[in-house]
Write a structure and sequence with these properties.
With 136 residues, this protein is α/β, with parallel strands linked by helices. The chain has one domain: 2,3-Dihydroxybiphenyl 1,2-Dioxygenase, domain 1, CATH 3.10.180.10. The chain has two helices and eight strands. Strands 1-4-3-2 form a four-stranded mixed beta sheet, with helices on one face. Strands 5-8-7-6 form a four-stranded mixed beta sheet, with helices on one face.
């Protein structure tokens, strides 16, 4: 099973945020991401940002008029969530960091029936995230 871990990342979570600068700050402070790259238009709108966590990348763009709808008009339900694998010896500190930064925890840190220790929180704009020790 470990032979797959050396392969390059092929799935990249991609999201939209209303305030790209706030998202970069939040993901860094609360969840421990690092800004890898960001590209802005001439008005400063973040067209594409890349955030890194333990070597893996996620992408986001700032909400704007585009041909890339995030969800159907009038639907305010989240369209998905992101699960991030955290080493077992770091999960408690990650949880505490998120709480200190003001993350709204909606599932407290707990052990699961499938052997993971995990929690779930909303980011600064209400996207649901889960962090846990399960890493297939």
């Amino acid at each position: 099973m470990n032979e797959h871990r050396s392969q390059p990342q092929v799935f990249y979570p991609a999201m939209r945020f209303l305030d790209g600068e706030a998202a970069i700050h939040w993901l860094t402070e609360a969840f421990g991401f690092e800004e890898s790259a960001s590209y802005r238009d001439d008005r400063g709108v973040i067209m594409h940002a890349e955030m890194r966590f333990r070597g893996a990348l996620m992408f986001f763009g700032q909400e704007r008029e585009s041909d890339y709808p995030v969800k159907p008009p009038g639907d305010d339900r989240p369209t998905g969530s992101v699960y991030v694998a955290v080493p077992a010896d770091e999960i408690e500190a990650h949880y505490e960091r998120a709480k200190r930064a003001g993350a709204r925890i909606f599932r407290e840190l707990r052990d699961t029936e499938y052997g993971s220790r995990e929690y779930s929180a909303y980011d600064c704009e209400g996207h649901p995230w889960s962090f846990g020790t399960y890493a297939p």
